[in-house]
Amino acid sequence: MADNEKQTTEAAAKPAAKPVAKAPAAPPPPPGPPDPPPPADVEIPAHLQALQAALPGAVVALSYYLRDWTVIVAPERVVETAGWLRQAEGAAFDYCSDVTAVDWLSREGPRFDVVYCLYSTATRQRLRMKARLADGAAIGSVAGVWSSANWLEREVYDMFGITFTGHPDLRRILMPEEWQGHPQRKDYPLEGPGELILESPQEWLKLRQSFNEAEIE
Amino acid sequence: MERDQARRMFDTDEMVINMGPQHPATHGVLRVVLKLDGEKVVDADVVIGYLHRGIEKLSENRDWTQIVLLTDRMDYVASAAANLAYVETVEKLLSLEVPRRAQYVRTILAELQRIASHLVWLGSHAMDIGAVTVFLYCLRERELILDLFEEFCGARLTYNTMRIGGLPQDVPPLWDKKVLQFCDLQIEKLAEYETLLTKNRIWLERTKGIGVISAADAISGGLCGPPLRGSGVRRDVRKDEPYAAYPEFEFDIPVGEHGDTYDRYLVRLAEIRQSVRILRQAVEGLPEGPVMGKVPRLIKPPAGETYHANESPKGEIGYFIASDGKSTSPYRMRVRPPSFCNLQALPQLVRGHLVADVIAVIGTIDIVLGEVDR
Q1: Which of A164, A193, B18, B327 is most buried, with most CB under 10 Å away?
Q2: Which residue of chain B has the CA closest to A96?
Q3: Are B319 and B307 in contact (CB under 8 A)?
């Protein structure tokens, strides 16, 4: 209803400026990453075909963009898929370069993308594994598969508030332990929680004091 | 009963001591909580984050071109390497062609930066262990590299020396000749460092068999750069996933055998030699032409994500960038910091060693806290 009103007022403000140009306007692109499927002339590598055959249902989709393969995995089967990718012959992704996340706040469906950048020192190829995760949901930890994921997952937990079940030591890593909120989330203010200091210094002093007392105890 | 008595007489509890964050040998603001049994390290907990400036969050609110400045401030002894990795990632997203001359000059800058970074590492590492002379020698040669950078881009530490699509300007006249002169000098001076250290008995005692990590552990633990190659893994992004002008040059990847501190020292010294080799080929084959490609006036990559890795002096530096195709800043920029991933192995490396060796191990993994914390 409100949208309709807005449109009519806008239309009234600009009386029939270019009605012809407006008519064929495409719907706005979805706010998430496009994850384009592989084009027909690109052959799916053998290890990805084997993965689809070995773990039916785990692979949600395949994507190919700028010469990189991405495999999108169901979040509850990430650990299983990671184990397969590490062990299987022809895949042998024994090196986990990076674990990170992206907050697609306005996307329909799950809010977060958890991204694993993998590399194989035997076959010298790369692969990205991705899981779409809803806000508040937990995902299995791959620190048991690649020990390098330990700190990387801690950073994702610290910055996005994503919980990794089965992680050996899930603590904040960059921010102080008593920090509130997760800074890399899109709804976290860029300037941080600093407004409290500027708006009401008394409140901030009280908060600060309560922290100190807790430390002394 | 007897045990209790002995316990009362000789207190055998483990002691927890705190090292850093204000400690001269931690190369910045690193804090290590050590659990000691006498003089032996039982366990270590690494506490980081004292230098966290939120560079990834900041990048989401800056223009694509402004972020080059932020990447300078991560690894501040090797900022050209961080610049290069970032601009290459954005070029990949935009599918841009970079002129051949720009690729060559970028390679020269990256290799000069590698030598400079390794010199800072060698100097500070040797000084931590007790060889103060090496520090003075190394910084003497690094000064010449800083002069070269100053002549090229006007800055001595945070260079901001790359642009998306090429370079801000061509090299000044006679600059390439000066690079060649520096190469000759550096090879000569390397022999000086080696005389001071390689066969030095104290150096051998302090580095051989300290901080050993096997090849399998190093791969699983995500080590990269010289710590990975010191364990005998022949992995170098310059060879495996070539970028810039590297496929056109001949060079070797030095690897170690035992994965200890001494092997990592040998690997880095050999890397300086290989860098000089690349520099000579690059300067002699420097092609003519423009140094800036055709770049759209408004940089706005199409929606999509990519990851691109480079070999920085510390190891694999990678950028994961997501663009939503609408705004003039990245939707998400993630840096894969090599120092962060190498530092993760610290507890594993120091377990069972003496407290004094912790200093040697912190030195050997070559961390820059600006990059660890971002």
Answers
A1: A164
A2: B222
A3: yes
